Amino acid sequence: NEDDPILWWCPDPRCVLFPAELKISKSMRKFLQQRPFRVTLNQNFSAVIEGCSKTPRHGQRGTWITEEMMDAYVNMHHLSYAHSVEVWDGDRLIAGLYGLALGRVFFGESMFTTVSNGSKYGFITFVHFLQQEGFSLIDCQQDTPHLRSLGATTISRKTFLDRLRENNRMVDEVRAWSGVIG
Fold first, then answer.
1. How many angstroms separate the Cα of 74 from the Cα of each of 77, 98, 99, 140, 162?
2. Which of 92, 118, 142, 180 has its CA 20 to 30 A from that of 40?
3. Nearest to 19 by CA among 168, 144, 138, 163
């Protein structure tokens, strides 16, 4: 909540997606083949995080993405640790997501969309990109029906922390991703 201090959460169980286990429905496959949108990396990080903070969410009042959090993530973006995925319809930003890339794990923070299937289109495109980049895990944190429909599953906190320890050997790699990925 906006008036609370910044807290660290480590849910048990933890919702994750192994990129190779991504599920795409038949209708979404057809939609992806139409290529209705353009997907980019790190073209407008500030607009994505702002979109995530301002998009109303069912069952939630307000946002956890405070100005202080935005400033912190923008700073991490300038250091090439925080990344954004933008989904465009022409020149209009219609969806996006952001998170941190550390080692071979992407830690998703938030996503938004203003059109049906916008964030799903961007997420699927980004998962394919991460697969090509050799990523082994996407941390989704919260278990939702939407993420489950895309192949996410839950693992225990202990298993999650074990995976992070394995990943720590690769954390120093910094990624200067940029451009069109879909």
1. 5, 11, 11, 20, 29
2. 142
3. 138
Q: How far apart are CA 153 and CA 160, in angstroms?
A: 12
Per-residue HEC secondary structure of the chain comes to: CCCCCCCCCCCCCEEEECHHHCCCCHHHHHHHHHCCCEEEECCCHHHHHHHHHHCCCCCCCCCCCCHHHHHHHHHHHHCCCEEEEEEEECCEEEEEEEEEEECCEEEEEEEEECCCCHHHHHHHHHHHHHHHCCCCEEEEECCCHHHHHCCCEEECHHHHHHHHHHHHHHCCCCCCCCEECC
Rounded to whole angstroms, the Cα distance separating 105 from 136 reads 6
- Which tokens belong to 83? 């990344």
Q: 100 near 88, Cβ under 8 Å?
A: no
- CA 42 – CA 77 distance, rounded (Å): 8
Beta bridge partners of 85: 41, 97
pLDDT tens-digit series, residues 92-131: 999 999 999 999 999 999 999 999 999 999 999 999 999 9
